[in-house]
Design a protein that fits this description.
163 residues, three-stranded mixed beta sheet, mainly alpha, Arc Repressor Mutant, subunit A
Length: 163
């Protein structure tokens, strides 16, 4: 199990999972993914900026905390994963867009399921869905496409994989 490098981001994640309604968590997932795509590993980011970008709220806590880009990239990946895992499973029939399973998306993108799971650590959002009575991770085009656009190396790997 990977652990957070910054206690402030762990606390933020715990608060979101415990107190924020699932629909708002979905919005925060998308916001966190957009932020993750913009991170410059060589820069430092104020915690209040990070919190605001994810939650639309600027806290007074940790006002002097600067987070290294590399640490922020790591912790945002964990935040995204924990938020996604905390959302109640949605019946696949109730989702307004097509849902792909792990196997389907890996086949579509011509990569292995292991690669998809690595991409999830880098910010690819999978949402919990109920399919045939089982909880599974589902991938929505509205969440996959922005990840591929923000991660050209992932797009290139998918495009260059043999069919």
């Amino acid at each position: 199990m990977m652990t957070f490098k910054q206690v402030a981001l762990k606390q933020l994640t715990d608060q979101q999972v415990r107190f924020v309604p699932p629909t708002r968590r979905m919005e925060q997932l998308a916001r966190a993914e957009r932020l993750l795509a913009e991170i410059d590993l060589e820069k430092q980011y104020p915690y209040q900026f990070v919190c605001f970008r994810i939650t639309d709220y600027r806290p007074e806590t940790y006002s002097d905390l600067l987070i290294a880009g590399k640490d922020l990239e790591h912790d945002l990946g964990l935040l995204i994963r924990e938020l996604a895992d905390s959302i109640p499973a949605i019946p696949v029939e109730a989702v307004a867009e097509p849902v792909m399973t792990l196997e389907e998306i890996s086949k579509k993108l011509n990569v292995t399921p292991k690669t998809i799971n690595r991409w999830r650590k880098r910010g690819l959002i999978g949402v919990p869905v109920l399919c045939n009575g089982r909880r599974q991770v589902g991938f929505l085009p509205s969440l996959v496409d922005p990840f591929l656009l923000a991660n050209p190396s992932a797009s290139n790997a998918a495009a260059n994989s043999p069919s």
